[in-house]
Amino acid sequence: MIAGLIALVLAAVVIVAGSALAMRKSWERSHPGDFKADPVYCELLTPETVHRLAPTSYGGRADTSSCTWAAPRAERPSGAGIHLLALRSNEKVSHAEVRRERTNLLGWEKDTVADVPGVGDEAFIRFSAPEGRAEIRAQVVFRRSNVVVYLSYKRADTDREAVRAGAIDAAREAAGRLKSATR
Q: What is the pTM of this model?
């Protein structure tokens, strides 16, 4: 009798777990995210913002999943620049990507990661200041639904507050423009 009861309880647990897993998979398929197509990356920042942050940069150079605004070669590596990379997946994978990147500090300062409220569904900022070089880079990583955006801003000086403010301003603009694009 006890063996039969245990078998019945185990069968019920398997059925409930299987049903829960099937419902979760069904929900994930029916909730892939807001974005069904990739955004036009170079349109996520206005020319005015690009010019304010990187005045000597030219246009936006689009790539497969990114856009770069950089100073002419003659001014590199000392010129300011902006690089935006966006990856589209489903919401679960995108959320996991942001969590993973928050702890992936290879090449980034370890004690400077901070939340950035009000940018996308979740966002954080991190910094890189190469030793011996008069430049600093900040990167805001944010997620809006099923799209993760990495927005890097490099300055030709070591003004940490200016690079922080510039990166966050650009990320806010990109998140706002992403919100209204390709849904």
A: 0.79
